[in-house]
Each structure stands twice: as structure tokens, then as C-alpha cells.
Amino acid sequence: MQLPVKLGVSTWLWTSPFRTEDAAGLFEKIASLGYEVVEIAVEDPFLIDTQKISKELEKNGLQALVCGAFGPTRDLTSDDEALQKNGLQYIEDCLNISTELGASFFAGPMYSAVGKARMVPDAQRQIEWNRAVDNLGKVCEMAASRGLELGLEPLNRFESDLINNVDDVSRLINDLNHPAAKICLDMFHMNIEEPDPGLAIRKAGDKLIHVQVSENYRGTPGTGNASWGAFYEALKAINYKGAVSIESFTPENKELAAAVCIWRNLADDQDSFARDGHAFLRKWAANKL
């Protein structure tokens, strides 16, 4: 059985930060490799001209998804209210970009700063949880007013101390109690935090609106020990119809370098990563591995 999914790839595989002038050459390459979706990683909204990028999307027959980069200056749980405010403004900018590029949601670990992983007292943890809920409540309203949803993404324990697995993100969504709050699951993080990745997908169920994939070491799909069979069966079981998008990074990543800890190339070159990854995912989605 063919999974009814579209295959995508993140701009982070090639470049950081993504700029308007990258779109023409990069989108042509992505389309030529067979992808239907490009996941645009917005590190700096001021580098994005949505009119020009929309023309390149249309020219290459690509659908756009938008994800965010939440470095230490964009922290909805910070003790510093200025950092909370900065995070909210950044998210609003990304929501506007999502709307203008025709995306239906904005995704990422927007509840806190990536790399914020500490041992803190339970009382402080609760304060930060409450801040995340309060601020994301505002974000849900901003998204809903634009006809968008949010793909809230759990991160592994080395990149976040707040939301690490599907149970955590489900609790967050329950506390938010807003129809715009949905789930994005990343296979890399799941391979660290979920004892049973297939069960995690089933738990997400109809809340799951986006799936990111790479191998257990962030490498090319099909070259590691990720649970591809379990992923296939679980996505089929919940009738998932969204995108399955490769997310990995170049060692030159700016906003998240210290958090993602990629200090070397994970393939011979990034084009080979994307080409081989697409070939593997096409067979995987067709259940022909």
C-alpha cells in the first residue's frame, strides 16, 4: 500500500540562513530530485521576500512548508520578558510568511529556546511550563486568525528540558485547549526519546500534521538504524496524509549550531544526501523496502 504522503526536504540541508536569493537555484534542484515539498527554515524573517519566493515555488511546482529556528533570543519561557516578546514577534513574522507562501501551518519547537536543557527545581519548571502555555495561547490565536495551525515539535533531552516526547506535547496541547495546536514529530528526536516510535505516532493520531525524518545520526534516510517499518505501519494506521520531509543540517548552520551539534558533513555532499534520501523514501512510502 502506498502511503498518501508528499515527500519534502528542508532548506537547512543546504544552507543557513535561507535567503530569498537562494530560492531560484535551490528550488530548481529540489524539484529536479523529485520532491514535491520544500520545508523553508526561516532563521531571519527579514531575509525572506515572499513575493519573489512564491514565484520560484510556482515556477518549480513546489509546495511550501515553514518551520522556525528558536535560538536563545527567542524564548517564550525566559525570565527575561524581552526575550519572550522577541519570540512572539518572530513567530508572528513567521506566521505572516506562512500565509503569504500558501502554507497551512507553522512548525517547530516554539515553546522554548532550542538548547535550553538544565536541571532546575520543580517550581521553576512549572513557572516555565505556565509561561509556555500562556504565550502559546497567544500564538494559537494569531495562527487561527490567519487560518493556520501550529505543529508543535518535541525535542530530545539534549536540546530541551521541557517537551521531549509525544506524551509531553500531548499534555501541552491539552493545556492549550485550542484547535490550532497540533503536533509535528521528528524521527531523529523520536529515535532518542520514544521506546516505541510507532506507538508514539498512534498516540499523536489526528493531531499529527507534519513528519520530519532522518536517520538516528541525522544522516541520509536508509543508512542508519531508524525504525522505518514501524513508522510506515503507524502512519498507515492513523491515515496520515501530510508531508514527510527530510530535516538535517549543514555544519554551517548559524542559529542552531550549538544545539544541533553537527560539526561534520553527514554525507559525501548535500546533493547526494537529498538524492539518495528521496530514492529511499519513495521505496519506503510504496512499502517496497
From TrEMBL:
**InterPro entries named among the record's database cross-references:** IolE/XylAMocC-like, Xyl_isomerase-like_sf, Xyl_isomerase-like_TIM-brl
A Pfam entry, by short name: AP_endonuc_2
Reported EC number(s) for this entry are: 5.3.1.-
Q: Which Gene3D superfamilies match?
A: Divalent-metal-dependent TIM barrel enzymes
Q: Which residues form the Xylose isomerase-like TIM barrel domain?
A: 27-257
GO molecular function (one): isomerase activity
Class of this enzyme? isomerase
Q: Spell out the protein name for this chain.
A: D-tagatose 3-epimerase
Keywords for the protein's UniProt record, in alphabetical order: Isomerase
PANTHER family to which the protein is assigned, alphabetical: HYDROXYPYRUVATE ISOMERASE, INOSOSE DEHYDRATASE
